[in-house]
């Protein structure tokens, strides 16, 4: 069968990790501008020079050359986010910042010049800082209105330039990183489960609401949710471990269930009851969720994990982003992220069986330390065979899932050009096909170099996956 003819091959990025220009052309501060040590905090009073995200890879001033390189690889789609604070610097204004809007107009025009379809995340870990400080982020229902205003503005402005939209990046990450993901300033240890799940409700309602608004503005819009996916294998065949794995996975399914089925699943109602959580629904919330489900499910996939009913028996992993016990059958990246290509096939099958909606893999890749060396043609390059192997192995499993009958819209590998890592806030955890000369201490020329994987991915796209 092979990859479908119209398969959307491409790469993914996020504004806060690569645009730079953090205070240029009227942009306001975001939660990232005050977290120099990764997305988890602690925050600083003001942006500090050690924060690599402030300059990123200066995509803001390099976008034409960078897009040219993406086009050379043959990208059909390109995922990026709009920085909310470029459009509404504080998040709660009513009049947008024209210079911010113009930047994305130019960016989307540049992509279309090469027939690259933009795939745009509305909120990728870059909540305007003012909304965190004044409202405690998504714990406050008022954010729904601000987000609707922002989404309406960009949907209207780009209605003929952008067809594919995602509402919240890794929406389930708010469970683990409430500040980075939800702009919630209350420290995690002081944040009650009640307030956390109420914040989640606000995000889910906001997601449904802007899905409605988007479809009204352009019925051809394809609007999806975006989930961190992570299969949690039972550590042993002990039924208690199987149950633990189900519980672990349900934490994530909660978000796709509501986005795809339009209502809270029963397993979470039991959890709420047992934990004295009572979600306050405003009038109309239930109807809004039910009537505005997503057009497709998108997700990031980096690793699987394991679940156990006897956590004291094992050492848990600090490496895997959502925790869990390391799987003895798998190897891990330098950051402890366990590499599991078959897990991707499982995730694809599970999502598809559960919802029968098209799927989009919008993040996947290997963070690694790269070494610039002189290539065969005398140009500097990176011999990143380890990255090629990782991606190749995962794409083979995508092919298997297609054979299984799963409907997959496309694949955008994470950090197609090197950018600042979300969890470490460093440059040295690199994912790209394109090396950017910038170091952890902020030095570097910002010059771009094609890695070996650049040529490999070009061939993958050219052959539509035939050469995997
Ligand atoms: C996802 C985020 C991205 C990205 C990626 C890799 O969780 O959506 O923003 O950064 O992970 O993570 P890291 O940069 O920490 O290696």
UniProtKB/TrEMBL annotation:
Keywords: Glycosidase, Hydrolase
Gene Ontology molecular functions: beta-glucosidase activity
Coiled-coil regions, chain positions: none
GO biological process, one term: carbohydrate catabolic process
GO CC list: cytosol
Statement: the UniProt record of this protein carries the keyword Hydrolase: yes
Catalytic residues (UniProt): 363
Stated family: Belongs to the glycosyl hydrolase 1 family.
PANTHER family: 6-PHOSPHO-BETA-GLUCOSIDASE ASCB-RELATED (PTHR10353:SF122), GLYCOSYL HYDROLASE (PTHR10353)
Protein known as: 6-phospho-beta-glucosidase
Lineage start: Bacteria, Bacillati, Bacillota, Bacilli, Lactobacillales
């Amino acid at each position: 069968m092979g990859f479908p003819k119209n398969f959307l091959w491409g790469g993914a990025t996020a504004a806060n990790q690569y645009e730079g220009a953090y205070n240029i052309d009227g942009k306001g501060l975001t939660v990232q501008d005050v977290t120099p040590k990764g997305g988890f905090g602690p925050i600083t009073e003001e942006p500090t020079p050690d924060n690599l995200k402030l300059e990123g890879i200066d995509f803001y001033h390099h976008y034409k050359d960078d897009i040219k390189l993406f086009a050379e690889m043959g990208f059909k789609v390109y995922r990026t986010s709009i920085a909310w604070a470029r459009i509404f610097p504080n998040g709660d204004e009513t009049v947008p910042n024209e210079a911010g809007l113009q930047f994305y107009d130019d960016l989307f025009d540049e992509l279309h010049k090469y027939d690259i379809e933009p795939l745009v995340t509305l909120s990728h870990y870059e909540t305007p800082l003012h909304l965190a400080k004044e409202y405690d982020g998504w714990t406050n229902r008022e954010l729904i209105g601000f987000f609707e205003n922002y989404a309406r503005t960009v949907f209207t402005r780009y209605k003929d330039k952008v067809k594919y939209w995602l509402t919240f990046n890794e929406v389930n990450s708010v469970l683990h990183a409430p500040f980075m993901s939800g702009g919630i300033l209350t420290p995690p240890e002081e944040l009650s489960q009640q307030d956390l799940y109420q914040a989640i409700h606000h995000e889910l309602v906001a997601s449904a609401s802007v899905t409605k608004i988007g479809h009204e503005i352009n019925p051809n819009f394809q609007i999806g949710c975006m989930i961190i996916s992570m299969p949690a294998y039972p550590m042993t065949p002990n039924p208690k471990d199987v149950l633990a794995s189900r519980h672990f996975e349900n934490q994530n399914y909660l978000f796709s269930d509501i986005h795809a089925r339009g209502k809270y699943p029963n397993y979470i109602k039991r959890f709420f009851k047992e934990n004295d959580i009572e979600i306050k629904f405003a009038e109309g919330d239930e109807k809004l969720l039910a009537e505005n489900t997503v057009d497709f499910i998108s997700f990031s996939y980096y690793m699987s994990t394991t679940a156990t009913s006897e956590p004291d028996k094992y050492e848990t992993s600090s490496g895997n982003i959502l925790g869990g016990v390391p799987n003895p059958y798998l190897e891990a990246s330098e950051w402890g992220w366990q590499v599991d290509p078959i897990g991707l096939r499982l995730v694809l099958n599970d999502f598809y069986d559960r919802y029968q909606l098209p799927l989009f893999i919008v993040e996947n890749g290997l963070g690694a330390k790269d070494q610039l060396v002189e290539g065969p043609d005398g140009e500097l390059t990176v011999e990143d065979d380890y990255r090629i192997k990782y991606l190749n192995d995962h794409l083979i499993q995508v092919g298997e899932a297609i054979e299984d009958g799963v409907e997959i819209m496309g694949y955008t590998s994470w950090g197609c050009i090197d950018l600042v890592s979300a969890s470490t806030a460093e440059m040295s955890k690199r994912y790209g096909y394109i090396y950017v000369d910038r170091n952890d201490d902020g030095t570097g020329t910002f010059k771009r170099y094609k890695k070996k994987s650049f040529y490999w991915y070009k061939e993958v796209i050219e052959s539509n996956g035939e050469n995997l």
